[in-house]
What we know:
Layout: E1 22-23, H1 38-51, H2 62-88, H3 91-126, H4 133-139, E2 155-164, E3 169-170, H5 182-195, E4 197-206, E5 214-216, H6 219-236, E6 242-248, E7 266-272, E8 275-278, E9 280-281, H7 284-290, H8 292-295, E10 313-319, E11 366-368, E12 377-378, E13 398-399
Parallel strand pairs: 1-3, 6-9, 6-10
Antiparallel strand pairs: 2-4, 5-11, 7-8, 12-13
Helix pairs in contact: 1-2, 3-5
Amino acid sequence: MSQVIVKRPPRVVPPELPADEVRLEAPPELPRGQQEGMAMQLLPMLGMGSSVVFFFMPGTQPFMKVMGGLMLLSTVAMAVSQVVRYRKGTQGAAVDGRRDYLKYLAQTRRTVRRTALAQRDAQFYLHPDPGQLWSLAAEGSRLWERRVSDKDFGQVRIGLGPQQLWTPLVAPTTAPVEELEPLSANAMQQFLATHGSLDGLPVAVSLRAFYHVVVSGERDCVRGAARALVASLAALHSPDDCVIAVVAAQDAAAEWDWCKWLPHTQAAGTADGAGTKRLFGEDLHEVEELLRDRLEGRPRFARDGQPLLDRPHVVVVLDGGVVGGPIRCWPRPKGCRASPCWRSCRASWRSPSAGCPSPYGRARCGWSRRRPRTTGRPTSCPWPPPRRWGGSWPRCAWAGGRRGR
């Protein structure tokens, strides 16, 4: 079998945007000034109008009469403006404050939209659509780009969903609602609800954070989701950093036969008539023997523990297959047998009306990432007798202590 040497160039990542909070300004409050009466506002104009009489006294010059007429017209104009202002009351100041605040929100909206566009582009770049992985591998510059030291190593895309804006929007401290200008306060609330989160962004789960992941639901949906996870791992992670093994029943082997062509499924140092052996079988013990050298000496799984940089991450896919007897090589996190790098995608074919033997089976067409029971004294944890894997995940029995999450 021929081999192709892949030289990984330095990884190119999207530019990081500042994650500082955007604290909005408070909307304006309603004016509280007391308005004077109409008579008090017109009293100065009455005084000016009474003085016009002296400009029209007998014997006054024509120039003075002209000045008196102009003064009379200005007095009438001032009186009309005062009447209009009195009728408007404090609405003028409220309108000015509302106009200024809406201009401020428009400027902030432009900045937030630029951040949202950059966030959307970065997320779709880091977690590409499963239907586009073939082009990523064909182009070659991003093939196996993730290194063990990268923060997103072991992350796989599980779907689309809402995410918080990179620059979180923080609501201001305001006066009581009844004292705020109504339109401005409503505009601020709509701004926070609309731009505080983004819909339709890739949602990823880190396989380093969980010792097993269960995919349950309808047969085609489950296998399609599991294939997308495995394809994402194979396209973005090097075979030296990530090892993939498949344990599938005979009736499910055809669905996973394509994994035999992945370099991630090759068992280093072993060979058969077709070349290097593949980490593929119907019995978990068979795969365990092939992975013995990679699993021995590993510490127990710890959710917050440091990843192993000198050993590859191991992913085991369980789709049917024989699981029985004591499993010797998998380290046990706090009493439960599982590898710190074991992540299983198990297909569950139960109908919604069927019985549910385990808490994992109740999550239909969803994701279950519950950790095992942690506190307490572990008792014996016998594995079930050899059988086809179609039921719930085997759990350890606990005595004493309390249940933890």
